[in-house]
Amino acid sequence: MALYENLNLEKGMYQAKGKSLTDVLESLDPSANYVGTPLEGLDAFSRQLKRFDIRVSGEGSSTVEKFFQTSNSAALFPEYVARAVKQGMEEADILSDIVATVTTIDGMDYRSITSDPKEEDKELSVVNEGAYIPQTVVKTNENLVKLHKRGRMLVSSYEALRFQRLDLFTVTLKQIGAYIARAQLKDAVKVITEGDGNSNPCESIACANSGEISYADLISLWAKLSPYNLNAILAPTEAMKKILALPELKDASAGLNFHGSGKMVTPLGANLLHTTALENDCIIGLDKNCALEMVKATDIVTDYDKLIDRQLERATVSCIAGFAKIFKDASVELTY
What we know:
The chain is α/β, with parallel strands linked by helices. It contains 10 helices and 12 strands. The longest helix is centred in the middle third of the chain and has 29 residues, at 166-194.
């Protein structure tokens, strides 16, 4: 009998600091042991689902009650919920396109570092022999990063869900993940525009003609961001329509690229990202490699006691995260 079939699963596994149930299972039952076997490609959690013949998706997916046939299989339910929510976050996520780095902390207090170089500091001049070498000052921010807890409460009973298919329940959980992702994006946009509390709001420039966005305005945005690279543009719906309608972005080669690859046109090489987190009278151009840091105090957290012992009832799914600006000048707001 394979090792994964002998593991004793219990809710105490969720208490491992900084580790998910999947991480704990991997330490007990490494995937490397299954290379060259029919189970290759499955992680430790997926092997446990196979052990109890629980199918969470596809044709013939199991019902919710399949998790609660034994105490061992019931211990898998909170991790299934967390993974489904996380999948929904990833599918709705554009944070990865604007965040330079993700920092995971063990606590609720965190100060980021910053550097605010002057114009002359951005160019490395020749240093003569014995001369003073210019310095770049890196320091911690005065104020802590504001962390926000985002989540939803699952309110139901085991009896109401026991005969529901898991693939349908997964859709609901993924939608919760999408809600969390959109709320986090709104937090990120607010930090970009207003700053993170350390006197570092985004610089704003205006379009030449009020109410309109021209190609020349995008050029101005690109120039203002220099020496940083304009590689991401955040735009609300109305601004997206104005940008995509620009004659310069509707030429034959742009159209052929869209029809051939399905990739949206990229103004000046920047990734054009649609978001409802912005007001309809502005867009944001930024260097995604320098502008923003995401700080996470927790990954997806579930109330495992309620999900296992009380078989759902009222349980929360949440995530704690915040954002900090790295270089103040690595993002610019264009209003129209």
